[in-house]
TrEMBL record, chains A, B:
InterPro entries: FA_synthesis, Phospholipid_synth_PlsX-like. Its EC number is 2.3.1.274. Gene3D superfamilies: Isopropylmalate Dehydrogenase. Belongs to the PlsX family. It comes from Aminomonas paucivorans DSM 12260. One of its GO terms (cellular component) is cytoplasm. Keywords: Cytoplasm, Lipid biosynthesis, Lipid metabolism, Phospholipid biosynthesis, Phospholipid metabolism, Transferase. This is Phosphate acyltransferase. It comes from the Bacteria. It is found in: Cytoplasm. The lineage of its organism: Bacteria, Thermotogati, Synergistota, Synergistia, Synergistales.
């Protein structure tokens, strides 16, 4: 399977995307990666890669790329030779089975829609992130494909999230909730309450509102919100993790007792940290476009890119796009 | 100083409010608390309190109270003898220096505006919560007085937050940021970007956008968002804390090594937990109304009510309301 990787996307490009692609190819013998980006910068990074892996890494040269400051839709239209655009073009032209980028989220979403098109019945795609908790893995959707949205967009996120969890994550009758500022029906704004009424009348297993506190404990299989809220929430969780670990380090530096404790607890703490390290773990599928597009965290290092490539490969193998298209077409609501 | 306490507000009323009032009076000899609520239920809870404290607890009997399901504005107008309404009336009538409630947030806000009135120059009050981090204490405002708001409301939250941090928390030239889904100016929705332009032109120390991850690490002194976002964020943090501690307990139960480590680390972990246990720590002042109104967490136990009474007392001693009124009147923008 050939996947296209936007080698210029993300804060640590092109080094980390290259290293991530090498890692993925090392462990997945069926994988080939097209590294789309500036050949002059990419080739030296691949100089010492073993021939077995190197033969499966294809540099697709372009000097243009999209920065984090670029306006998403404008750059996607104007920068026709940008690394992201070319990676998406490869998916459209069936040269690549899917693509991965750690770059500008807005551009990835705009590009996904512009180049690949939307799945019939979906007005706006959504980014869904799996949240691991004690009891289950929940899908939080949308975490940044939109900023604000209409009730119909929230409803479509609910539908796609439900399809994803049922068909791709194997959860029978996934429970779906809207994220709100309280459990009672009087909570939420007009958009959220209108979506609630549509979802109540649908055939989805809609359970009403959940609150912020219910997200990390995994109260439902799917949690729906607009992209502003999902983004802020996810990054808050990230910052909180960093904050807690920073405080821990500080405490451990200051006193002796926790140092002893730490030696015994380190493996467990590491595991916890990984568990709450949402985005860095891998990639987020852009649900609702006609192709496999995986958004990796902007700060992705090699491990995260490696994981994002695995997520893309899995999504392709599971026929993710086709499944969503078929299920949306069935109505499902 | 006499403070009015809505003894029927919150999930654990009237037991925990009563116990909290007792605790506060035990340690603060100048404090008197008017316990507003059903005398038949309150009196037995006070039966064994020492006479020194009991003499400073005054039961103000009423059988009516506002539930979590009640519509805020309707219940505030109709339930004129509700415990919350009477507590606010006592503040208005200067019988009480301030009031505390762990009840229905919407009703507390609506009641604050209806009974006490808004400070001139403030269209809608905001709830500000201190967020403790490694480097500083930031004020997150609003965490639930509003759901959505207009740019002018966000600007007024920024102003009140800045006044609060400068005059009441002793931070010179507090830095103020808007919470957004990215740092670049192209991020945010129309409301947030309009507020950004107004704040840029103001005399506040406005530093632009911060992201979710910047909140727990304390990047700025004041973080401004609408009440939906602040509520979801705060509760997400709460749930995450519970989730992490739940996972830790599970790991510790399952294996032996972490048990040993835990013995050494427990004091530190406790401290961390308390640090991120935002709302339960105490109360949140409703900024922008003509009186001291402190909202305590709905799940408040005695300790939290005790702390909320302390926050109210401190706010009164610091002339919180007068300070905000005077500073807003000066323009300050």
């Amino acid at each position: 399977m050939l996947l296209a990787l936007d080698a210029m996307g993300g804060d640590r490009a092109p080094q980390e995307p290259c290293r991530g692609a090498v890692r993925a190819c090392e462990s997945l013998p069926d994988l080939e990666v097209a590294l789309v980006g500036d050949g002059k910068r990419l080739e030296p990074l691949l100089a010492e890669v073993s021939s077995n892996v190197r033969s499966r890494l294809h540099v697709v040269h372009t000097e243009e790329y999209i920065t984090m400051e670029d306006s998403p839709s404008v750059s996607m239209r104007r920068k026709r030779n940008s690394s992201l655009r070319l990676a998406l073009d490869m998916v459209r032209g069936k040269e690549a089975a899917g693509c991965v980028s750690a770059g500008n989220t807005g551009a990835i979403v705009a590009g996904g829609v512009l180049v690949l098109g939307r799945i019939a019945g979906i007005d706006r795609p959504g980014l869904g992130v799996p949240i691991l908790s004690l009891s289950r893995t929940s899908l939080l959707i949308d975490v940044g494909a939109t900023v604000r949205c209409k009730p119909v967009n929230l409803v479509q996120f609910a539908l796609m999230g439900s399809i994803y969890m049922r068909c791709l994550a194997g959860v029978p009758e996934p429970s779906v909730a809207l994220l709100s500022n309280g459990e009672e029906d009087i909570k939420g704004d007009d958009v959220i309450s209108e979506a609630r009424e549509i979802l109540k009348a649908s055939s989805l297993n809609f359970v009403g509102y959940v609150e912020g506190k219910d997200v990390p404990v995994g109260k439902t299989d799917v949690v729906v919100c607009d992209g502003y809220t999902g983004n802020v929430l996810l990054k808050f969780g990230e910052g909180l993790g960093e904050g807690v670990f920073g405080l821990m380090k500080e405490e451990i530096r200051r006193s002796f007792l926790p140092k002893i404790g730490l030696a015994f607890m380190w493996p467990m703490l590491r595991q916890l940290h990984t568990r709450f390290d949402y985005e860095k773990q891998g990639g987020t599928p852009l649900l609702g476009v006609e192709g496999t597009v995986i958004k990796a965290h902007g700060r992705s290092k090699a491990r995260a890119i490696d994981n994002a490539l695995r997520v893309a490969r899995q999504f392709v193998l599971q026929r993710g796009v086709e499944t969503i298209r078929e299920e949306v077409a069935k109505g499902g609501m």
